Design the sequence.
């Protein structure tokens, strides 16, 4: 196969297969959690569950979600929270606001949205890469987190890092490689990441919203400020 044919394969059939595995895997996780049920609360409600949900999400938008000032752990481990915020915010911008990625979303979903200027997204990619490297370094240096970090956790970091760094290298024509070869490397790492996510802790982006909704509803019903 020629380089062009390999690229077309990674962008076409392999990407579609990876997307199918990702979608089916995440749907399985979602419905598995859903079918676990919600323990009935027999205590009389003191507030509205819906109000609690809305407040929870509004606070996440207004207050930097990765550095909650009321949480003692954010004061004890500021590096983890700041680096985590950098990584997640940068990754969000790269995935959803880069023009080339929006075109991919348009092909998948049938619609798109406005993009940010490429230099801004490039800066966000750097922020995400620095944040991820900081998180990995902290896990390795800190004896407690190093002990708690298994092989799967290191693989998660690696498999997220590779699409970021290959995409950034492709944009800047780094490593002295042909653009097409960098594009192939980027697509292979993206395809593999899509397959990996449903079977790993990276699927937490789905459970995050489920947990947030449940906690908001519980706090709202009990009349407790989330």
Sequence:
């Amino acid at each position: 196969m020629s380089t062009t044919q390999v690229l077309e394969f990674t962008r076409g059939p392999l990407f579609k297969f990876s997307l199918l595995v990702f979608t089916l895997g995440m749907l399985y996780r979602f419905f598995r959690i859903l079918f676990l049920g919600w323990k009935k609360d027999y205590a009389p409600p003191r507030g509205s569950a819906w109000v609690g949900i809305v407040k929870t999400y509004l606070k996440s938008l207004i207050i930097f979600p990765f550095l909650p000032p009321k949480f003692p752990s954010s004061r004890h481990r500021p590096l983890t929270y700041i680096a985590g915020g950098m990584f997640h915010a940068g990754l969000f911008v790269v995935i959803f606001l880069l023009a080339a990625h929006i075109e991919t979303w348009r092909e998948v979903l049938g619609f798109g949205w406005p993009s940010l200027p490429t230099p801004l997204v490039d800066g966000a990619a750097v922020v995400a890469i620095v944040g991820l490297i900081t998180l990995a370094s902290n896990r390795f240096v800190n004896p407690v987190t190093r002990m708690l970090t298994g092989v799967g956790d290191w693989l998660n970091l690696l498999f997220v890092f590779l699409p970021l760094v290959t995409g950034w290298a492709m944009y800047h024509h780094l490593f002295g490689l042909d653009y097409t070869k960098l594009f192939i490397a980027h697509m292979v790492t993206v395809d593999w990441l899509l397959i990996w996510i449903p079977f790993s802790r990276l699927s937490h982006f789905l459970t995050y919203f489920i947990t947030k909704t449940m906690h908001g509803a519980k706090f709202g019903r009990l009349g407790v400020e989330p």
Remarks:
- Residues 118-141 form the longest helix (24 residues).
- The mean pLDDT is 83.
